[in-house]
Design brief:
By secondary structure, the chain is mostly helical. 67% of the residues lie in helices and 3% in strands. It has helices at 9-34, 45-99, 106-129, 168-178, 187-190, 196-209, 213-221, 243-251, 264-274, 286-347, 351-376, 380-386; strands spanning 131-132, 135-136, 147-150, 158-161. The protein is rod-shaped, with a radius of gyration of 41 Å. Flagellin is the subunit protein which polymerizes to form the filaments of bacterial flagella.
């Protein structure tokens, strides 16, 4: 082998190997200090792309779970308010049962009516005040289609929380819808006998207050007759439920002279619906008074039962939606665990393997340094030839 002074090939090889092993050690230090196997694209270009996609999925799932929990909170707030509305309606129905006795005095009926009226007003207040932050969730501002919840990490993965409208008008509209009433609000005055519970309310008000069904309709539901009865209180349909007028069905009591000559025809129009037997002449008979009073009581009982059913239907839907969102959160959490495990195998540093690699490279570095030192001494051999 030739002996050169200007070019020390052995030293150059030693430098090359020492540089390579130093680079590998630096890479090991970076991986061990960061805990990540991929710190730049050069570490694993394909792995970086895969791990980033998995990171996108994980962050999306975590946010989706928080969104779903927000939806559960909305449902819980609405369901709690509806629970109190149910309690109030149950008490109102109890008052109606109590008022079913004709043994009560006018003062007794007034006391019943005052509490009945107050509970109706409180229920409307609850519906109007219940909110998630500043977002009203139980009145006319609540969307019929519900509140959309982005409960998944990808496009198209949404759920819905439907809180509904618990205002009195909307609840009565729901009663009419459940009964299959299809007429518009004008039907309440002209065809009340086909308008279900709301039609009976008009008839009860008419006979208790000795007025026509048109007057009764105006008193209970206002004079605007647009829109379907089943859409009362929603879809922008005009219509109200006059609480004070509704309470008169409980408070008022027909007397033998209630049916005056000027209103005999108006009373006759509802006679069949009310179930009054015989002819209504100048005043009611005792038997007819019992029939009128019994009809008014039955009508209010049916109305209160209908309201309870409507509220319970909303609560049942909210309960089902809460359970669905809770299941979604559990599924998202499980997916986060599994996807994180997959990403970990791609991205995270295997400390056992990396420390072993670091130790190997440290030994090689020491050997390379020693060999380089010896290689640097090779040109000295040429001097011995000159001596």
């Amino acid at each position: 082998m030739a002996l050169y002074v200007n070019t020390n090939v052995s030293a150059l090889n030693g430098q090359k190997n020492l540089s390579n092993v130093t680079d590998r050690m630096n890479s090991s230090f970076e991986k061990l200090s960061s805990g990540s196997r991929i710190n730049s694209a050069r570490d694993d270009a394909a792995g970086l792309q895969i791990s980033d996609r998995l990171t996108t999925q994980i962050t999306g799932l975590n946010q989706a779970s928080r969104n779903a929990n927000d939806g559960i909170s909305i449902a819980q707030i609405a369901e709690g308010a509806l629970g109190e509305v149910t309690n109030n309606i149950q008490r109102m129905r109890q008052l109606v049962v109590q008022g079913g006795n004709r043994t009560l005095s006018a003062d007794d009926r007034s006391a019943l009516s005052q509490e009945f009226t107050k509970l109706l007003e409180v229920n409307n207040d609850i519906a109007d005040r219940t909110a998630y932050g500043t977002l009203k969730i139980l009145n006319g501002d609540s969307p019929e289609s519900g509140f959309q919840i982005q409960s998944g990490a990808q496009a198209g993965e949404q759920d819905v929380v439907t809180t509904g409208n618990a205002e009195l008008a909307a609840l009565f509209g729901g009663v009419a819808e459940a009964e299959g009433v299809t007429g518009d609000l004008s039907t309440l005055s002209t065809g009340f006998n086909t308008a279900g519970t709301l039609g009976k309310m008009v008839a009860a008000y008419a006979v208790i207050n000795n007025v026509s069904t048109g007057v009764a309709t105006d008193a209970l539901f206002g004079s605007n007759r647009e829109g379907k009865i089943a859409e009362l209180g929603k879809n922008g349909v005009s219509g109200v439920v006059n609480i004070a007028a509704l309470a008169t069905i409980l408070e008022g009591e027909a007397t033998s002279s209630s049916a005056t000559a000027s209103n005999i025809m108006a009373i006759a129009n509802v006679q069949t619906t009310v179930g009054i037997t015989g002819t209504v002449s100048e005043g009611y008979t005792d038997a007819q008074l019992n029939e009128v009073h019994g009809f008014a009581t039955d009508t209010l009982l049916d109305a209160m039962s209908g309201l309870i059913t409507q509220v319970d239907s909303q609560r049942a839907k909210l309960g089902a939606e809460q359970n669905g969102l809770t299941s979604t959160v559990r599924n998202n959490t499980t997916a986060v665990v599994n996807v994180s495990d997959s990403r970990s195998r791609i991205q995270d540093t295997d400390f056992a393997a990396e420390t072993a690699e670091l130790t190997r490279n440290q030994i090689i570095q020491q050997a390379s340094t020693t060999i380089l030192s010896q290689a640097n001494q090779l040109p000295q051999t040429a001097l011995s030839l000159l001596g």
